[in-house]
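debug: dumping io for the single-chain case to check the tokenizer round-trip. Nothing else runs in this session.
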Amino acid sequence: MQLTSAQAWSRAEAIARNHPEKALNAFESLLSCSDLKGMAHLRLGVIAARAGRMRDAVAHTLASASAQHPDPEFQLMLARQLADLGELQSALGCIEELGVLDGIDPSVLANAGKTLADFSFYDRAEEFLVRAARAGVRSAVIEYLIGLSRMYCGKIGMAQESLEACLRIDPGFAPAMRALVTSRRQTADNNHADRMRSLLARVGDQHAFAPLLHYSLFKTFDDMGDERTAWTHLEAGMRLRRAQISYDEPGQRALFDALEQFAPQQCDAASDVTGAVPIFIVGLPRSGSTLLERMLCTNPGVVDAGELRDFVCQLRWVCDSIGGPHLDVQLVDRAKECDWTELGRRYLEHTQWRAGSAGFYTDKLPANSMVAGYIAQALPMAKIVHIARDPMDACFSNMKALFADAYPYSYDQGEMARHFLWYRRLMSHWHEMFPGRILDIRYEELVAQPEVGMSRVLEFCGIRRAPGIDFATTRLDGMIGTASTVQVREPVHSGYVGQWQRYRAHLGRLQSQLGETEA
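debug: decoded output
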């Protein structure tokens, strides 16, 4: 007797559950069924990803996207899988299809908004989240995400209203407090210190939110000029956050050592490239990369594409090595046999769409400093601008930022200093291997003499300056999806230079390990 589609799917699911080694054959047998083909491809993509086969995972997931999917929840699941595999343009297409459907379940709209926010499309995330809220999906998380999206889009007043709405639903939702503190300078007459201290006293230092509350209290008292109280909270926040995360420092040192073995190779990388040219802005986080990007993008010929994870993702595809968004020693080892031409081609295929009709677009992921040599090898037309900052300012700025899932070295003075020294040594290696391919620009120069600094950047990138631009006074608007979203909307100034000096008495270990007697 012939099985119905539902029965065939249930049978494949049972085989995969009870005999995992037969799961591949079970779902491959469904590819001939037109109404199951899309779902089977998606499941085969998940199986391939779990087995470490990046290329197969991408191929099956894209094949799933090409099928018809009447179920919005399945479409959303597919979008997230596509995004996780670096196929963001296809993922956005899936979500946009949801946006035009009538009568869609509001919870699907809410989850689509969350997905868009996860991948930094905050302008589109706000639209989906607001639609969901108007349709009746009201929760602290939804209000928080609306507030966060609005803050990243520069709608500060509206963002604060949404964040307060979140706290009315759940007064203990610490991320909303953190966002409120970040959204403006705190003053003695207008701050959230009492509500944060009260919550911290209630939940205790072992709560998952405790580091976030301490970092928020640091920012509050730092704004108000109370360095003693501010440092007490920063020190506690760093200690608690460090206890929450896993950081393999020997493994990180091995990664830097492996990268320093790389030397240029002969290849025909991207010799026939056309279209928009990528400008990579690299450096240690919190060194001024967002400011540089925003100043560069005041020129109408340059589009801000934000912090892209495409280069490492496409490196994984070329090396057929599944993994997260960050570089690892195994991937570096596999990259010894990398097809650099293919890597450059795939990177451009996956990113040039962001430029629209512009001739240049930015890729501002700070961690691309780790692969600057790979970028130079695979993309000979690409421009690489390295923004460097005073070591103590750069390290302290990292330490006082609470990162979500990156930069785990930033919660201990010794680990921070050692990472900085490895990073600086690697950048010297890239300069030696690819002379003339990387432009160094100092943050201090950029804020003290923006016209001089930006003239150097434009000349290096081959960009003709548009008339009427004044880099010293131009206000930076638009979507800025980084922790410095509020800070970089201020007029360009040098007020953040030497900020570490206010905490000099507490930063002796950092300064000693950096070898900085005076900075």
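debug: round-trip ok. The CA atoms of residues 147 and 159 lie 4 Å apart.
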